[in-house]
């Protein structure tokens, strides 16, 4: 369409020149040709900058390439350190691509978010904030290697024991949200959330198009009908001033701040900003300050073609909240109904994981994913360095490929360090690394298939000899839940798309 516009512009300019008189025709024709050529050059540059991934029709999808972790020799470095992360947006983005008949671009795939999308069956701790579970076995995708799983499960909080929630919905109602009925899915999603809240909770609503405005001041769930009515009345309008919308949302959260409650801004958007400060570096400047004052930010992304994954993820990271991508009403139900307490109430802040391998027993290791959550080893106990946030009942899974020199007993240690949200004290706990037997547990076999699927999709060097056929075989052998069987269908679709 852009090229058609360029050609049409050139024709119109040439036509105007031809009709302008003999004495000026040559000059105007020359100017028109120069203008058309310049316009075409600009259009080609824009087209190159916004080239759709895989040559598909979904333009302006913004992702960032973080690279792929290498194997590390324990002779060079025995420590692996990263921030805990329970975001799942990358998996939902991939699913949306494949369901539309396209493979996702390499940079859209974050392997750890694929793995963490699937619930852990590790029991939650009863007395502690976290329970650490370690297991593993022979890797199904690397001969001579083992797969190590470190699963960290947070304590659960019953719905009736959850803190009061003061939520401010900041909703993107710009023109881009009219595409594919995005705003309608936002409205349905937020209504699910409202229906799950308790009478002591409050909801305020801010919207932004060309400008931001307050739609509803914080209102008790006792007046649920008023909140639902305000959500239902939303309609697309104007450009996208995300900066102004977030500013108003934070101002409202600050004005109605309640000590000891959940004070959270919830952004629902496609992440596109074209008015005001549009880059995440500018928008993020104030968000960290609010997070330090216990006003957190969670982001929920919507839309395909014109979607900014980078902005949405970085906003949530700096806002000490979580990021998810909602590609369907089912995903909204999963996040806002089945996992509501964990979505809202944080149990640990600035959480970091450090794994230390014994060089006498481990030859080399590779962390699968978490490239954008890397922390310097020396900053593990530097509590001014940002980590991740974990909600009630959430689990964090990290997978390592390791090459052992000896048996699989006592070959290292995992440590986690975090700020306990309840006591406001820094805590550090640890557990030794070992596992019994060579065969992977069935649920870990499935996660191995998920991780390999992510590695293949992002064209990782370490999966260059892998195949979707082997992924499918392993997934079919180990799948047990409805979500796991749905993954199998995605693998089959991906196989068909790669032919």
Automatic annotation (TrEMBL):
Keywords: Signal
UniProt keyword Signal present: yes
Top-level division of the source organism's lineage: Bacteria
Span of domain VWFA: 166-340
A Pfam entry, by short name: vWF_A
PROSITE patterns: PROKAR_LIPOPROTEIN (PS51257), VWFA (PS50234)
InterPro entries in the record: CLCR (IPR051266), Uncharacterised_YfbK_N (IPR022156), VWF_A (IPR002035), vWFA_dom_sf (IPR036465), YfbK_C (IPR021908)
SUPFAM superfamilies with a match to the protein in the record: vWA-like (SSF53300)
Endpoints of the signal sequence: 1-20
Listed Gene3D superfamilies: von Willebrand factor, type A domain
SMART domains, A to Z: VWA (SM00327)
Name under which the protein is recorded: von Willebrand factor type A domain-containing protein
């Amino acid at each position: 369409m852009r090229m058609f516009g360029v050609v049409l512009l050139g024709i119109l300019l040439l036509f105007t020149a031809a009709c302008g008189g003999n004495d000026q025709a040559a000059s105007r024709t020359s100017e028109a040709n120069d203008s058309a050529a310049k316009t075409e050059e600009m259009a080609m540059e824009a087209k190159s900058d916004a080239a759709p991934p895989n040559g598909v029709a979904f333009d302006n999808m913004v992702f960032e390439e973080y690279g792929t972790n290498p194997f590390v020799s324990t002779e060079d470095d025995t420590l692996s350190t990263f921030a805990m992360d329970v975001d799942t947006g990358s998996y939902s983005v991939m699913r949306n691509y494949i369901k539309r008949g396209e493979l996702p671009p390499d940079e859209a795939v974050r392997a750890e978010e694929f793995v963490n999308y699937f619930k852990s069956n590790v029991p939650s701790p009863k007395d502690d904030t976290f329970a650490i579970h370690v297991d593993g076995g022979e890797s199904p995708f690397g001969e001579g290697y083992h797969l190590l799983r470190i699963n960290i499960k947070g304590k659960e909080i019953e719905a009736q024991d959850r803190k009061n929630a003061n939520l401010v919905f900041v909703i993107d109602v710009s023109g881009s949200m009219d595409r594919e009925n995005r705003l309608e899915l936002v409205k349905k999603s937020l209504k699910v959330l409202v229906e799950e809240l308790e009478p002591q909770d409050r909801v305020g609503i801010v919207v932004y198009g060309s400008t931001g405005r307050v739609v509803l001041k914080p209102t008790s769930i006792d007046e649920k009908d008023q909140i639902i009515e305000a959500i239902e009345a939303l309609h697309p309008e104007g450009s996208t001033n995300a900066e102004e919308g977030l500013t108003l949302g934070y101002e409202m959260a600050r004005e109605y701040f309640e000590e000891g409650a959940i004070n959270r801004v919830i952004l629902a958007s496609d992440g596109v900003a074209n008015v005001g400060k549009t880059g995440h570096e500018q928008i993020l400047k104030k968000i960290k300050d609010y997070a330090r004052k216990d006003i957190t930010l969670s982001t929920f992304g919507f839309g395909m073609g014109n979607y900014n994954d980078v902005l949405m993820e970085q906003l949530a990271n700096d806002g000490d909240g979580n990021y998810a991508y909602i590609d369907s009403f089912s995903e909204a139900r999963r996040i806002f109904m089945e996992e509501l307490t964990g979505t809202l109430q944080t149990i640990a802040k600035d959480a970091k994981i450090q794994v230390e391998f014994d060089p006498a027993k481990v030859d080399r290791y590779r962390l699968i994913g978490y490239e954008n959550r890397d922390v310097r080893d020396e900053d593990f106990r530097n509590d001014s360095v940002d980590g991740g946030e974990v909600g009630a009942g959430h689990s964090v899974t990290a997978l390592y490929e390791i090459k052992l020199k000896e048996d699989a007993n006592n070959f290292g240690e995992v440590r986690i360090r975090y700020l306990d949200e309840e006591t406001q004290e820094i805590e550090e706990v640890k557990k030794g690394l070992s596992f019994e037997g060579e065969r992977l547990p069935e649920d870990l076999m499935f996660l191995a298939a998920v991780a390999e699927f992510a590695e293949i999709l992002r064209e990782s060097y370490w999966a260059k000899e892998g195949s979707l056929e082997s992924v499918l075989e392993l997934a079919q052998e180990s799948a047990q839940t409805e979500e796991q069987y749905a993954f199998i269908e995605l693998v089959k679709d991906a196989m068909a798309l790669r032919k």
